[in-house]
Structures are given as C-alpha cells and as structure tokens.
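SEVERITY: medium
COMPONENT: batch folding queue
REPORTER: lab tech (J.R.)

DESCRIPTION
The queue accepted two submissions in a row. Attaching both inputs and their returned structure tokens so the on-call engineer can compare them side by side.

ATTACHMENT 1
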Amino acid sequence: MEKPMSQSINAAFCAFTAFGLMGVYEGLNDLSGDTLDSGPALMVAVGLAALLASPIALVGFVIYPNLARSWSPSAWYRQYVTEGDKTQRVDWSAMVYSSLLGFVCGVAIVSFFGGIAHDFNQKLMTMAFLGLASFAAGVIGVIIFVGTMPIFKALLGKFTSGGRALVLFPVMMATIGGLLVLIMIGRMDLGAYRIERFTSPLLAIVGGYILFALTRNSSAIIRRAIGAIGVTTLLFGGLILTGDDDWSKRASAIVKQGASSQITLNVLRALTDSDGDGFSDVFAGGDCNDSNPLISPKAKEIPDNNIDENCRGGDLKTEVKPKQVEPKRAPDQIAAAPRVKAAPYNIVFIMIDTLRPDRLGAYGYKRDTSPNIDAFAQNSLLFENVYGQAPNTPRSFPSMITGRYPSRISWEKRYANYGKLTDANQTLFKIFGAAGWRTEMVSAHWYFEKAKGFEKGIHFWDNRGALSIKKSNTQSAAPLITQKIMTRLDELEKRKERFVLFAHYFDPHSRYMNHPDVKVFGKKGLSNKYDSEIAYVDHHIKPVLDRLNSGIWARNTVVVLTSDHGEAFKEHGFYFHGRTVYNEEVKVPLIIRVPGTESKRIKTTIGLVDLLPTLGEMTGVKTETAMGESMVGLWTGTGPIPKKPVFVEQLPYPNYKTHMVAAIDRSGQFKVIQNVTDNILEIFDLKTDPKEKRNLLDKNPDGASPLRQALEQFLDADPG
C-alpha cells in the first residue's frame, strides 16, 4: 500500500501532466504559425500551462487522493458493472436519469429567461434577473431530481433485467452527449467569447484526476513516467518566469490565437502591475513606468511636458508652424478653375449594414450574390480599397455622417455600447440642412432609437418597423426599406426640393437566414448563409437602383452605396464584427454614381471620413469640421488627391474592452496596427499579404516607419 504522501505527490504530478499535455496541444495547434515557430510556441504554451496548473496541483495534492478513496473509475466499474446486483444498478441508473432531466430542465429555464433578459437595457437589471432565474432553475432542477428518481427506479426495475447494459448505457450516452456538446460549442457563433479558454483547463482538471485514479495503484514505472512528465512541465514553467526572451512575439501569438495561455498571461500581467493602472512593465505589458499610475498606454498624452504619458514614442511636441504670408495677387490674376462644377445635386445615401466588398461580384467575387449592385456599379465610380472607421455601427455610422474619426467625435459618453452624439457635432444632416437641402432618413432598427444625437437636423425620419434587440436578430426588413425609399422618392419628387435621403438596410447583419424567394448558397455554414443574405438585399434593392438610374434621377442625383463595416469568419479568431481592425471587419464597398461622370475603378485607399468632404465639394457645401479629404481629384484628375493616412479605430466599450487602432497609407501597401490594450504592434504589406497573416515588425520594421510615426501621432492626439 502506497503511503499517503506518495499518493498526494503522484496526484500533483498527474495534474501537471494533464496541463502539460494541454499545453502541448495548444502550442502545436493554436500558437504555432507565422508569429511563433513550433519550438517557441510549444515552450511558451507548456510553460504557461504549468503556471496555470500550479494552484490546481496544490488542490489535487489534497483532494485527488481523498476523492479517489470515495470514487474512482475502477472502483465504480467493480461495484456496478462486474459485481453489482440489479438493485444497485437500478438505483444508480435512476439517479443518473433524474439528474440529467433536472439539469436539462434547469438549462431550458435559464435559456428562456435569458431570452427575455436580452431585451433589457440596464446591465444591473439583466444580471439580477438572470441571477434569480438561475436560482429558480436550480431549485426546480432539484425538485425534478427528487420527484422523478422514484419513478425512474420503478420503471427501470420493472422493464429491465438489471444487467450490465443498464449501467453502461447511460454512461455511454452521457459520454457521447458530452462530446457532442463540446463539438457544438466549438462550432457555435460565439463571436469574441473563446470558450476553449475555459473548457481546456476544465478538461485538464478532470483528466488529471482520471489519470491519477487509473494509475494510483499501478506499477512504479508508470508513476515515475508521470512524475517525469510533470517535472518537465514544471521546468518549462520555471523557464517562462526566469527567461529573458522577448515577450512581444509571444504575447502577440497568445492574444490572437491562444486559449488557456491567455488566461495565464493576463494573470501574470495583473500580478506584476505594481501601480495598479492595468498595465505591467513585464510580459510585454506595455507600461513604461510601473511606479506611476498616471503613465500607461491608456493615459492621455500631455504635450511639451517632457513626460511620455502613454508610453509611445516619447513626449508629444507641439508643432509650431511658421506664419504663412499670403502673396499679393496681380490685378489680372484669375482664380484657378474648380476641379468640378458644384451643382445642387440631390443625394441618396444607401448604407447596407455589415457588407464585405469581397462578397460582391463587382469586387471580383465568383458567386452571383449581387447582380443588381454589380449592374449599378458598371455605370458608377467604384472604389476598390475603402475602410470604415470602426468595426461596428455605433462608431462607424457617426464617423461616416460627421466625417470625423470615432475618437474625435464629441460623445455624451465615449465609453458606451451605443454612444450618443452631443450637439457640438456637425453632421451630414445639419450641414446640408443649413445649406438649404431637405434631409430625410429611412430605417427600421432599434439602434437608431438608442443612439440619439445624430437625428438633429433631419427634417423627416421614418424608423417604423424597428423591433427589439432580440427580435431584430431574425428581422428581414429589406422589403420594408425599399418600400419606404420608393415612397419618399415619390413625395420628394412632388416637393421639388433638393434633398439628402439616407437609407439603412440592416440585412445582411446576423443572424443570417436563408430566404426562399432568392438564391440560396448552401443551407449550412455561416459563410454560405451570409452570401444568401447579401443576395436577399440585392434582390430587394433592385427597384430602388432601377429608379435612380432612370429619368430625372439619373441627371440630378448623386447616389452613394456603401456599408459601415465588414464581417469576420474567423480569419483572425473571431466571428462577426466589433472586435478588431483587420480588413475583414473594416473594409467596405463604396460605389458612387455622379451624373455625367463616366464609370471608373479607383485603387487609392479611401476612408468613409472622406465622403462628407467629397459630397461637399460636388455640391458647393462647406464641410470644414470634417477630418477626411475630398476624393474628387481621383476621378477628375485635377488638383490635390488625398494624402493623409486613413485611420481605423476599435474603441473600447463595455461589451468589449480592447483598444486597437490602425493606419493605412493611401497607396494601399502598408498597414500598421497598434493593439493598445495588449501592447501588440503589427505591420503588414497588403500588396503581398492582403489577409494580414505575416507581421513584418521583425523582418522589416522600417518599411512603414512614416506610417508608424503617423499612427503614434494620431494616438498621442487622442483627446481621451
């Protein structure tokens, strides 16, 4: 009989072994790639797994042996399978079935009330409601367990022989069910919630115990082998803590691709954050002064005080520009001709939510998702490289209508899920309304009810048909929006006023659905359903585009068709949008039909902040508050063309606290991304790496130095 201390030591080594194997899997499967080679990835994953296992091993040191004395797989098998009688087997099976029934009913109750809570606006109320629902579900689950156990006993005792299958069948079904649940969770549309961060450690904890229970009475050779693996795992953990390797590449791989390793990295950074400002000066935490909480990557930079508050490129120096002396003009000098003849065009601005350009035929997509938009693009200006200024509607839409970057907009509360604009903002509606245009908007979505402030200056706004947050997930409003647009065009034609009409199509925003009246691109898979949603919008937008391409509308109306952001399909670890500034989430289509202008494809990088100045130049309306640059020169070939880099911002908000900013040069070659929260810098050559997979920071750090400098200056000037 092995001594208790030896049993406890063996239990701890089993825990380290299980976590070490988890680290091996994560290192080779998740972390190994373009950022880290397999060797360094394996080392860091196993090392971090060892650190995560340390408290588990201490618990296992005490609990595993005691638990094994009361229950172990081998003891259970002997008791109920090989030696048990019918009564024991019936009792055990009845307990399993009644437990499963109580658990399933409890989950169903929580899911039902969770759906109700989805419509709540107050986070505290939602948490309280779900807490009560969970408590009620637990009580009901226990009642069901207690109430049904005698019923199951009676049924199993009467209708079964009490053989081994009575016990093995529920175990087999529970095992298969558990595996199916894990597979389903792995395929679920969880967006930013990488549940494997938590399921992997849980599996390692259970695996460590099972390993101990199966080997505690085995030969000394097997126990020594487990001990050797456990010690090796521990050594990797020690190397992680004592090694002086550069953590920047490690952290980049962990944040972008890691599972449980990200938990450990966050804990290490929190434990080494001496000043409590949320950033550490080790483990690539980004803090340049860990003794001063006023200095960190999230701090506001104060210029000209010789202090680098945000730990980015030194102190911000105010640029002193020499006075410009206006040269005297000779009497016979004539002002240069304008690049385009300003005209009081009507403007129809169509925003199709969540639309990726690379899923449209006009942008080279092979599937026939958008025949009507493609036909419209043939007689229009098509911009090939366009960026929304944020990966979600609550930041991108206000940026689009103000011509300002999200961090430079005046918010009532910047750190909010659905920020409201202050009256200080000059929007598309205010600017054109003050210049004599009638401004109108049609939509059918709850967001516009929450995000107040943008509607100032709108003469007519129709948001009828907007549903709750929950119901909007399955809302297909494209037919309604088309009907609204056609009705407003009828009315505006009668009024004979110049106008701006802004229309918002919510489809193809998730939840994706297949529609029987349009082409379906495969019934399964998110990507297929997304394409089907695009086809649905394209089908219903046809009457609008046909009308705008005919008669007086073709002669006096500028039509803009674009989107607010893109959509991710795990190109960088996430589904959907609102998480990163990689191209799949922020590149958008932009098609502009200008009366009397020939069609043209334009490759220059554009931001949606450039739209307002462009519309202003075409109509003669001043847009001084916009930060973008007019694009008119790109199709007229006269005058200056946009030069300043385009910036994209993922500002933190309560539902997702990561701060990322990107800068893209106008040639479309380089893109620099700064993950402020996790202190990760990335440089991509979009000409050779359009999918943004190869970080050039180590291989060619100077290749985009002007763009890096521009990004640093942009971040330094963030008003916070």
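ATTACHMENT 2
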Amino acid sequence: MTNKNSTRASGSNCMSCRELLDEIERLRSKMNSLAATGADYAEVLEISRKLDVLIVLFHKIAASDTC
C-alpha cells in the first residue's frame, strides 16, 4: 500500500495497532453497508481487497509483538 494510510512495522509513519484496528472496522462497516444496499460489485470488491491487506498487516505486526 502506498497511500497516506500506508503502515510499516516500525518508523515514524506507522499506524498504531489501535489505528489499524479502527481502519479495519471502518472498512468492514463500509463494505457491509455497500453490500447490503446492492452497491456495485467492483466497489465492494475494492473495499474487500483493501480490508484483506490491512488484516494481513495487522496479523504480521501482532505476530512480531510490536503492538
């Protein structure tokens, strides 16, 4: 991920675990809302892929005990 929400396990630009979990929850909620309202499949898929990236990142960070 190369946007402003890019997260690294260390460094001054990394999100905290709490921020990461908050973003995961925000995207999860958005994806569920879009799916429930019959939004365009491509839009739901895009959110789902972003969510996948953040979840994997969270698990990597959690496994390295930097949370």
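NOTES FROM REPORTER
The helical segments are 17-36, 41-63.
No errors were logged for either attachment.
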